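hi!! sorry for the late reply, been swamped w classes. u asked for the two structures so here they r. pasted raw, havent cleaned anything up. first the sequence of the first protein and right below it the tokens
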Amino acid sequence: MKSISRNADNGNSFESSIETFFSQFQIFSIARKAHATKTKGISFKVLWTFLVATLLSGHSSFRHFQMQELPFSEKTYRNLLNNPKVDWQVFLACLAQKVTAYFSSLTSEERKNVFIVDDSMYERLNAKKVELAALQFDHASHTYKKGFRFLQLGWSDGNSYVPVSFSLLSGKNKVSQENETDKRSLASKRKQQAQGKGTEVMLELLSLALKRGVKASYILFDSWFSSPKMFQEIRALELHAVTLLKRSSKVHYFYQGHAVDVKSLFKQLRKRRGRGRSRYLLSVEVEAHVDDGVIPIKLVYVRNRNKRKEYLVLATTDTTLTEDEIIQLYGKRWAIEVFFKMCKQYLQLSKYQGLFYDGIFAHTTLVCVSYTLLSVQHRQANDDRTIGELFYLMVSELADLTFEEAIFQLLELFREALKEEMILSESVLQDILEKFLSLLPKESQMRLKTANAY
């Protein structure tokens, strides 16, 4: 079946594939919902197609503009990016709804689709005049850098990742202040959100995604967001959480009527409930008491085969899941790590030189849309069900992330288990990224690799 190549050069330009993607998912209809329209002059369709093609070309917008004869000026597309009236979060969430529905149609209803939340450093060099830029602690390098926290909400089915919504968070130690705007305007609300707490903004993004029809049963996040209060908020949205817990003595859960922390609980039960050669050390159900509510939590302690004293603690509010299912679900979280690396290394995330927060936010939306396009191309190159109805009926759906893959990725955390932030090693991320790129159409591969070299 792979002999029917969708990567063959049939005369269509890369720009044509961009337009096909826009048409398939009705992106310009979505733009109207987000008020990203123009009443006069060059249309949003022309400008947005130019900007996506520019992002994937490896040149800056100004450089790409100089290389072509275009019927508009540089100021025209910059005005679009800096437009304070466009709701870019709604724009991206509506696009994600259509793309995730398309991916879900290729798999069975039993597939466990998930939301994924994480943040990453969005560095801006020479940020003294960049609106709302602040000093941020980078947990990867353990240094302070100027820029934003790129808080991302995504969706995954175990094969494809789709960015759903995001916010660029500022901080207390700002290097540049907010420009004056009407407090009732959309731009002002966006900036107010940027100065909110990460956990609260995360819930706002999640509520927006659910309101716009993006569907998933679970939400995955790391230890930075995990707490009994967060579990309560997630259950209020009728979702289940699967998360990594901090091995902290300050956070307590209730086991057999007694308040214990996860470290004390492990010391108390590991001898009586040791799992021998099992892939996890301990599985136990506890309760989280928040306000007047009680939330059942299932904890799974995962061993490090090389260092017996090291372990990670996974937790879920869905106590019906088996230990293997919990590990497998959490393994899907690594898709967002690949997303961050792809955006920074190939999609020019931090290379936009604008100073206004609205423009930076719009550029980040552009990066997310470009990644969504590549994610669709990756799926179409890898999933024969996308070819047509006959192939859909005759070909099995793509397999979910296997338990073995999840275990491998989870155990990579032990390399950073004693540090403040737990991340995959650089070599593992690079291998996953190279695999992602290898399945894209040849034209996309060439452009992205040229962009990276540039």
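now the second protein. again sequence first, tokens right under
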Amino acid sequence: MCFSAAASFATSAVLIPLGGYTLKTAWQKDRRYLGWASFPLFFGIQQALEGGVWLALGRADPSQLHSFALGFLFFAYFVWPFLIPFSAFLVEDRSGRRLVFLALSIVGFLIGLSLFFPLLVDADRLPITIERHSIAYSSRLIWDAIAPTSVLRVVYAGIVCVPLLLSSVKSVRIFGVLITLSVIAGFLFALHAFTSVWCFMAAIISAFILFVVRGLPRH
């Protein structure tokens, strides 16, 4: 699979205005869905940042490369493992599932903090290379001495996918199936650059949020 700055910027150019529309629609119809409605905007910003990573790699500019990579990983490591289960919590009506989703969002927040904060204080923890036409963020994590990267990825996938798949809202479950398939595809075909490839696939899938918010009755 081949990616480039052009692919990232093109995806961003579509998702950012789409995110503005979904946020406006959710605000007008049902504000519990504002978390979901923010996904296209945030994925669009994330893809714009990865476009910057591609350009900085091409120019061999380490300062810009690090800044753009930190911006990209802020979403990948910190935002998504918290925001996705929290958004599921906001729209869930069943009290038992709400507690589970809230617990997962707290765990996601703590894990995300542990993944991202060390990169802020130690630039050497973030080597970046191009492998098989994709960007590999070979972050040295504080978890490396405790568990293999594959285990951490499975935990991350569980935090992201379980609330979507267990949601009582049908459109959220459909979104969850799409996201889960993207995670499986990343595991099978892009382990060498899982973070970059999965975030790109999830960004494309986030366009589905348009159908979620357009189908909302006014609450």
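hope this helps!! also noticed smth abt the second:
The longest strand covers residues 128-131.
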